[in-house]
Amino acid sequence: MEEGLGVRLMKHIINRFQNILLPSPEGDGLGVRLLLASLIFAACSSETPYTPAEPVAADNWGAYFDGSNDSDYPRALTDPNTFDLTVKRVNTKGELVLPILVESISGSLSASDTVKFADGVDERTITVTYSGLDKGKVEGTLSIPVAYTNPYKEKAGFYQQHITVYQPNVVSSNVVMAFDAVSSGIDKGTFDKEVYTITQVPGENRFFWNNFLNTGFNLAFMIDETDGNGNFDPTNTKKCYGSIVPMNHYRDDGTYGWYLCTEADTSKGYTKHAWTHNGDDITSMYFYWGTYTFIDFREKQGNESTYGVGRFAPLTQNGDWYYYNFYIYYDKEGQQ
C-alpha cells in the first residue's frame, strides 16, 4: 500500500516525539510501535482517495457568457421587455449549435433554446425576453451545459448568467457634478455640470448610478453603513448616507481602492476601463475606499435648494488627482 500524505505526516510526528513517549532509551518501544501501527492504520483507512477531475477534450468549445453582461436590468413597465446577452467561445474551429438553458425563479424569462456560431466566429448575441414585471422582480438564470464549457481555459466569463429585472425607485434624476479641485492632466470641465440619475432596487441596499461618468454602463453600488459612518433606511432613502461600495464594474486592488473596469463581473478577468469624454482620454480610473468616495442623500440647506451631497476622488493612470463633488437636488416639495 502506497503511503498517503496523512500517513507520512503521522510518521513524522511520531518520530519527533518518540523519545518523550519511550520510558527509557533501553526500552523495547513496544508502546510506540503499537501506537504507530494504530495511527497508520487509522490514517490509511480514513484518508480520502484522490479522484481526478473529468478530462476535457482537446476540441472542447469553451463556451461562456461574457463578463461584460450585466446581471441587473432596471426597467419601467413601458420599456421594451427584452435585452441582449453576449455569448462567446474559445475554440472557434467549426460550426457550433450551443444549447441555452433557462430557469425562471420569479416572473418569466425566455430565450432561444440554441445559439449558432459559424465557423471561425467567437461571439454571438442572444435576446432574452421577460414578463411578470408588473407583479414584482423577474429573476432567473441562463446556463450553458457543462459539456460545452472548459473550466481550464482562462476567460472573462461564466457558464451561468444570473438575471434580475426590476422596477427602479428613482432616488434622484438630478445629480449634478460640480468641479472642486484638480491638479494637471484632466481638464476641470470633463464632468463639470453634467447631470445623472441614481436609482435603487426597491427596499434593498443596492443603487445604480446610470451612465456612470458617461462610460455607458450603470455602476451598481451599496452604502457602507458600518462603524456608525453611514446609514441605510430601506423605507426612506433621504436618511441614507455612507461610503460608496461598488458591486459591478470594479476590481479591488487589494490595498487602498478599486479600479473602474469594463467588465461587469471581474472575478474571471478584467480590463481597466478607458474612454474618451469631452476631449479627454481617460486611460483608467482608480477610486479610494472610504470617505474619499461617498454619497449622502440626507437633506442639507444650500444656496439654491435643499440637496444631498457626495464626492469621488479618482486617480488617473499617470498619477493625476481630480476631485469632484456632486449635488443631489430636490424640487420645491422636497422630493428627489
How would you describe what is shown here?
The chain has helices at residues 5-16, 18-21, 30-46; strands at residues 63-66, 72-74, 82-89, 96-99, 101-106, 108-111, 114-117, 123-131, 138-143, 157-158, 160-166, 169-182, 195-200, 207-209, 219-224, 241-246, 250-252, 257-260, 275-277, 280-282, 286-288, 294-301, 306-312, 314-315, 322-329. The model is unreliable at 1-30, 181-185 and 331-336 (pLDDT under 50). The chain is built from 3 helices and 25 strands. The strands form 6 sheets. The protein has an 8-stranded antiparallel barrel with strand order 12-13-14-15-16-22-23-25. A 5-stranded antiparallel beta sheet has the order 6-8-3-1-10, with no helix packed on it. By secondary structure, it is mainly beta. Helices cover 10% and strands 40% of the residues.
Q: Mind sketching the topology for me?
A:
Blueprint: H1 5-16, H2 18-21, H3 30-46, E1 63-66, E2 72-74, E3 82-89, E4 96-99, E5 101-106, E6 108-111, E7 114-117, E8 123-131, E9 138-143, E10 157-158, E11 160-166, E12 169-182, E13 195-200, E14 207-209, E15 219-224, E16 241-246, E17 250-252, E18 257-260, E19 275-277, E20 280-282, E21 286-288, E22 294-301, E23 306-312, E24 314-315, E25 322-329
Parallel strand pairs: 2-11
Antiparallel strand pairs: 1-3, 1-10, 3-8, 4-7, 5-9, 6-8, 9-11, 12-13, 12-25, 13-14, 14-15, 15-16, 16-22, 17-18, 18-21, 19-20, 21-24, 22-23, 23-25
Helix pairs in contact: 1-3
